[in-house]
Design a protein that fits this description.
Blueprint lengths: L5 H5 L2 H29 L4 H28 L9
């Protein structure tokens, strides 16, 4: 079996589900810290909504990238099962 690519490792079900959970937790905390006052005041702009979406994207990408790199570094052809 050939060595998987970074993208195929990033798209495995376990990597995606873990990255989503990380993004939800970390992204929500960052949004509360950075936009909590605007949320409570009801003064969010369209630009703020875009930035909040991107706030979730960053931890998702970091988590999926680091998981995939770890899988490749350990020579795993598939993610470990639970």
């Amino acid at each position: 079996m050939s060595q998987p690519t970074l993208i195929t490792c990033m798209l495995t079900a376990s990597t995606v589900s873990t990255a989503i959970r990380v993004a939800l937790v970390v992204g929500t905390l960052l949004i509360a810290i950075n936009y909590g006052d605007k949320i409570l005041a009801g003064s969010l702009t369209p630009t703020d909504w875009i930035k909040m979406f991107l706030t979730y994207c960053v931890p998702y990408c970091v988590s999926s990238y680091s998981s995939a790199k770890a899988m490749l570094a350990h020579g795993l052809n598939s993610p470990p099962t639970k």
